[in-house]
Recover the amino acids of this structure.
C-alpha cells in the first residue's frame, strides 16, 4: 500500500496546516487508485472546514454534507476520495484515539505534524478491517 503525492500538493497541505495552526486543518485527498498494486495517486488536496465544535486544537470533523458534495463532484470527474488529510499541532503524526474512532476502513489518513508552526513530519495510515491503523508508504517525492 502506498500513497503518491507530488511535492506541489504536499506544499498546499503544509500551507493549510500553517494557516490554521494551532488548530487542526483538514481536507480531502482526491485522485485515482490502482487497487491491484495498492497504489493511490493524489491529484488534488481540497480544503475542508474543520467542524469540530470546541476542540479544533486536538480534533477535526468534516460535515457529512460536505463529504457527500465532494463525493458527487469527484465521481463525475472519474476520480474518488482516496482519503483525508489533517494536521496535528504540536503532536506527532500518529492517529489519536478520536481519529481511530472516527475513521473508516479503506481510506488513507494522511497526518502532518506541525511543531511551533512549522511542519515536522508526516505519515499516512489506513485502517484495517480489524480497526487498527497501519502505516502506508509515501512516495519518494513526498518529503519535507
Ligand atoms: Zn488526528
Amino acid at each position: 500500500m502506498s500513497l503518491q503525492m507530488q511535492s506541489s500538493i504536499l506544499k498546499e497541505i503544509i500551507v493549510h496546516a500553517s494557516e490554521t495552526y494551532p488548530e487542526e486543518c483538514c481536507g480531502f485527498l482526491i485522485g485515482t487508485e490502482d487497487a491491484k498494486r495498492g497504489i493511490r495517486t493524489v491529484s488534488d488536496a481540497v480544503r475542508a472546514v474543520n467542524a469540530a465544535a470546541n476542540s479544533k486544537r486536538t480534533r477535526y470533523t468534516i460535515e457529512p454534507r460536505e463529504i457527500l458534495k465532494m463525493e458527487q463532484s469527484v465521481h463525475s470527474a472519474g476520480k474518488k476520495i482516496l482519503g483525508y488529510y489533517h494536521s496535528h499541532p504540536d503532536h506527532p503524526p500518529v492517529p489519536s484515539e478520536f481519529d481511530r474512532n472516527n475513521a473508516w476502513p479503506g481510506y488513507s489518513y494522511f497526518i502532518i505534524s506541525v511543531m511551533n508552526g512549522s511542519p515536522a513530519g508526516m505519515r499516512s495510515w489506513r485502517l484495517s478491517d480489524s480497526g487498527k491503523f497501519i502505516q502506508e508508504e509515501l512516495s519518494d517525492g513526498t518529503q519535507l
